[in-house]
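Could someone model S-adenosyl-L-homocysteine with this protein?
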Amino acid sequence: MSNKIKYQPICSTTFKPNTPDIKELSRDQLVAWLKDQGLKPFRAVQILRWIYLHQADTFDEMTDLGEELRKLLSHHFTINRLEKAKVETSQDGSRKYLFRLEDGKHVESVLIPEKDHYTLCISSQVGCAQGCRFCLTAKGGFVRNLSKGEIIAQVRDIANHLDDTMRLTNIVLMGMGEPLANYRNVIEAVKILTDSDTGLGFSSRKITISTAGLVPRLADLGRELTVNLAISLNATDNETRSMLMPINRKYPVETLLDACAQYPLLPRRRITFEYVLIKGVNDSKQDAERLAGLLRPIQAKINLIPFNTYQGCEFERPQESVINDFKEILTQKHYTVIIRHSKGQDISAACGQLSGKYDA
Ligand code: SAH
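Reply:
Sure, complex below.
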């Protein structure tokens, strides 16, 4: 561990037990609640703008609401922030946030500085049920789904507390958990993230949902959202993929890729295929050739992720030359290929290294 890593334990929460977080409500639900109280729908717009545009922490700040309504809201709802149990900064500038949730469970989000913007990698579940053999999050098993409010809060809490002028523009659901296994909460959270009127106003083009391949949910996702889709493919034959990713036994490679070929894409959009390169497992030239062939019917681009090691892992990262050869084969076949050298490895913030463990 380098001595450049900073630890910044920060605590903040407005949590009141048994009072719901207003962020769990959609705009329509808030309108309905207001109607029950004999109040007009436009109040919902005011309230939500306070929460997402002005980052209000209390209803008292909502000065255009009138005292009675502010009191009523305070009585029925809270505006929760997540408790930052720990923030670690890597030598490469990426920052890992460990959040303690109301029930004492933990999740992690990673803020990654790019050339001219930040990307935030957020979690969708505490733990994960997919059991992918190479992923550290999987080792802890599944604990629970994150609520819609908890998913939004990872973004809301970080977005406006950046200490420099570079903006957070990109969100990837590539942290802990399988987003499509927490489908409804993820969809509703993304709707708030992309709502430019009363939400956080992110562009759908800058949000990516990554999945291990829950095939039946892909069609639903394509109908409901226009965010980017990333598929963790990670192997080109069923035997290897089933060994690495148990979900492949249910939805094998050909079923998954058929669903991808049918996925409704907006013009000029492509599906990203993530491929974790593991030494001696899926990194041969034949794998690269097969991958090129498999993705032919799909508007695809490819992210190669050299395997990130962690204590006790059974796999290794291929040599640089093997990684480059793999890329070269795909590039020659006219694919757009990026080698994603994950950031934040010194603080275990890289792909597949999030454990959500609190060890102060
Ligand atoms: N469950 C979703 C979201 C997690 S994304 C999914 O599977 O897509 C996490 C990404 O990191 C996935 O593409 C996964 O294949 C990759 N990954 C997991 N463990 C890794 C490791 N040790 N090294 C590199 N990449 C890893």
